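A quick aside before the break. I want you to see a complete sequence-to-structure record at least once, exactly as it would be stored in a machine-readable document. Don't worry about memorizing anything.
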Amino acid sequence: MSHKKVCLECKATLNRSFNDSEQTYPCPKCEKSMILLPSRFRPPKKNDDKKWETVRFLIENGFYYQHVYERIVKYTNGIISCEDFVTYPENIREAKEFVERYKEQAIKK
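That is the input. The structure line, written in tokens, reads:
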């Protein structure tokens, strides 16, 4: 299973296979700690400061691009309710609403 190591300081992203023995992930450029995110994370372009601001805001609020669910109530074919994945926001305004709405699913570190 692969993950992405992300440096929010220099906006570097490395695809790496997950190694349980690794406790810290120093950035090869600035040597600050990198953050481990799932492979589904799609990093913005390095020069897209607004999207990087959104990524930082989400991570600082406990959303490490893990699956976040929305409960949807349906009454079809015997299904009473189900959960569906939520798409992560693309801008800071949507990110603030997202954090407020799904705060119970944030990862507490």
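Two observations worth writing down. The mean pLDDT is 88. The helical segments are 49-60, 92-101. We'll return to this after the break.
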